[in-house]
Design goal:
Number of strands: 5
Distance between the termini: 49 Å
Radius of gyration: 18 Å
Largest sheet: 5 strands, parallel
Structural class: alpha/beta
Order of helices and strands: EHEHHEHEHE
Strand order of the largest sheet: 3-2-1-4-5
């Protein structure tokens, strides 16, 4: 079984890793993906000046208009977003592939990637309450309705209440 895990950095890594471990126990594989949305205004700002990648300590200046550097930006941003889930999977001896896609239509990018990888299921987060009117416009619901494979939605962990003595500070 091939599982596609998609995250924007808020997916709770441990519950996701638990499900992926159970689903891939008999020789399955996992791919973790992130869709990077790059607003046109951001690209214009990058075009107006030089862009330096994270951790660029050697003074290297990157031309943001170069196609390879745009891919580098997407790769770098994507790696940061998927790192918690990838780490949780590796702790369970699952070595996932990673995929980073730039797209304005996140739901379509997820469904397309799922199809191109031949994924058997998609695991993703549900950051909104599932049974409200606004939930039907969420990315997770768009993926659920467009996907040809099952979609497992992992809710965000509940927020912890503040300790009694800390409220109102």
């Amino acid at each position: 079984m091939h599982i596609l895990v998609t995250t924007a950095g808020v997916l709770p890594p441990e519950p996701v890793a638990d499900f992926v471990e159970a689903l891939t126990r008999s020789g399955g594989e996992a791919t973790v993906m992130n869709v990077v949305q790059t607003p046109p205004e951001f690209l214009q700002e990058l075009g107006a000046g030089d862009w330096r990648p994270f951790g660029s300590s050697d003074g290297t200046v990157i031309d943001p208009q170069a196609n390879s550097e745009a891919r580098r930006y997407v790769q770098e941003r994507g790696e940061k977003m998927v790192a918690p889930v990838v780490a949780a999977l590796k702790r369970r001896n699952i070595n996932p592939e990673t995929v980073f896609v730039e797209s304005d239509d996140v739901a379509d990018a997820i469904v397309s990637t799922s199809e191109s990888l031949g994924a058997d299921a998609i695991v993703m987060g549900a950051t909104r309450r599932l049974f409200t009117e606004s939930a039907w416009t969420s990315i997770s619901m768009k993926v659920s309705t467009a996907s040809r494979v099952p979609v497992l939605l992992i809710p965000s962990p509940p927020k912890r209440p503040m300790p009694a003595g800390k409220q109102g500070i």
